[in-house]
Amino acid sequence: MGNPVQRPLPDVNDPLYQMHFQGLKDNQLRVQQCDACGQRQWPPRDLCKQCHGDRFHWPVMPDQAVVYTYSVVYRAPHPWFKDHLPYAIVVAELENGLRLLGNAFGEDVEKIQCGQLVQAHFQHDEDSGVCLLRWVPTC
């Protein structure tokens, strides 16, 4: 048999996102927070959107959120997704108002609704060492 199709993965070495992806590997949600003014921001940026500071730390956020919006995908944009249809692209809002993107697969797709409480699950890909965020309904 041929090689299995590999999942397309984000650039986990992008300096702006390295701490986020390291947090996912550690089973934690981390977002960028300005050292000067305390503003938390997502997505990460080179400068703080509030005070334009350029020094940050990455606190751990709660792993529960509320579905802000979602879209169910029925057509595979890449061969890897063909065996994972349908799946949902989920934007979930943390208690501090930041919104993070993740996926939902399998029977979870049928349960996703706006306003619903979801739990972060951390999908560790053993082949690549990359961990991705998956949102799973809590009920």
Instruction: Return the CATH topology of the largest domain.
Output: OB fold (Dihydrolipoamide Acetyltransferase, E2P)
Mean of residue pLDDT values? 94
For the biggest β-sheet, the strand order reads 8-7-6-9-10
What is the second-level CATH architecture of the largest domain?
Answer: Beta Barrel
Task: State the domain count.
Answer: 2
Q: Helix/strand/pairing class, anyone?
A: mainly beta
Report the major sheet. 5 strands, antiparallel
Question: How large, in whole angstroms, is the Cα Rg?
Answer: 16 Å
Cα distance spanning the termini: 40 Å
Helical run tally: 2
Strand tally: 10
Q: What does this entry look like structurally?
A:
With 139 residues, the chain is mainly β. It folds into 2 domains: 11-61, no CATH class; 62-139, OB fold (Dihydrolipoamide Acetyltransferase, E2P), CATH 2.40.50. The chain is 9% helix and 36% strand. The chain contains 2 helices and 10 strands. It has helices at 18-25, 108-111; strands at 29-30, 32-34, 40-41, 56-57, 60-61, 64-73, 87-93, 99-105, 117-124, 131-137. A 5-stranded antiparallel beta sheet has the order 8-7-6-9-10. A hairpin with a 5-residue loop joins strand 2 and strand 3 (40-41). The chain is globular. The termini are far apart.
